[in-house]
């Protein structure tokens, strides 16, 4: 079984695209360039797509890379929204306004029921 894409892979990809440079992206992330290169290589293998063209001046985003960047931007914005929402909940903001989504708040989530087993 191969590697699976992680949220940080999308963040890394987004930073590389923003800086047009693997080495500059690693400086902003405090990440070893070899690790970043390996994660991008795994992402490329997993999706079977070439995202960047490496040049002596950095990297150039290819059309498939532009498409992934659009997806990554949306996904990372949604993740940020989720994190912000739950962090606020943990701090007690609007805590009394939140109700359970279940019809019976005492009923536990049942995976088998959700999967129709």
Automatic annotation (TrEMBL):
Pfam families, sorted: HTH_1 (PF00126)
| UniProt domain HTH lysR-type: residue ranges | 5-62
Q: Which UniProt keywords apply?
A: DNA-binding, Transcription, Transcription regulation
Per its UniProt record, what PROSITE patterns does this chain match? HTH_LYSR
Q: What InterPro entries has UniProt attached to this entry?
A: LysR_HTH_N, WH-like_DNA-bd_sf, WH_DNA-bd_sf
Q: In Gene Ontology terms, what is one molecular function of this protein?
A: transcription cis-regulatory region binding
Does Flavoprotein count among this protein's keywords?
Answer: no
**SUPFAM superfamilies per the UniProt record, alphabetical:** Winged helix' DNA-binding domain (SSF46785)
Q: Which PANTHER family match?
A: HTH-TYPE TRANSCRIPTIONAL REGULATOR, HTH-TYPE TRANSCRIPTIONAL REGULATOR GLTR
Family that this chain belongs to: Belongs to the LysR transcriptional regulatory family.
Q: What is this protein called?
A: HTH lysR-type domain-containing protein
Organism listed in the record: Enterococcus haemoperoxidus ATCC BAA-382
């Amino acid at each position: 079984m191969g590697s699976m894409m992680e949220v940080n892979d999308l963040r890394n990809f987004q930073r590389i695209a923003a800086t047009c440079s693997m080495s500059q992206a690693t400086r902003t992330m405090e990440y070893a360039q070899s690790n970043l290169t390996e994660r991008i290589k795994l992402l490329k293998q997993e999706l079977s797509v070439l995202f960047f063209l490496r040049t002596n001046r950095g990297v150039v985003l290819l059309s498939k890379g532009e498409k992934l960047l659009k997806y990554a931007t949306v996904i990372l914005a949604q993740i940020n929204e989720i994190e912000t929402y739950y962090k606020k909940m943990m701090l007690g903001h609007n805590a009394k306004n939140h109700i359970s989504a279940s019809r019976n708040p005492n009923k536990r989530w049942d995976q088998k029921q959700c999967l129709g087993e």
